[in-house]
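SAMPLE LOG
Freezer: B-3
Tube label: C17
Construct: single chain, 107 aa
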Amino acid sequence: MSYYAIFYVAEAFLLGIGLSFSRHAGVIAAFGERFAKTGIVPVELHRYLIEGQEKRNVGDYQIGPGLTDIQAAEQIARAEQFLNLAQRLLDASPPATPGNTADQDNP
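STRUCTURE (predicted):
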């Protein structure tokens, strides 16, 4: 499902600053705190991550009515936004070189 594309991009952002979490809730909360609240990414992307998890639960666990084709298409479009953002930020980053890692003192 498109949620995982969104989730893994959020998780990669966090790994880029030295943070990792064992639960989806931890990734979602930290992404909001570290990237959306600070303005690094648009706040709506954090909302997309939250809503994506909710829709994944519906699809995976049959919680409530299933997703409509329109809702599924919306999730795919949101995943594309996340992937485009990640690509833009990667393109803007200097290439990694040995000894040139993320600021490890301020995760």
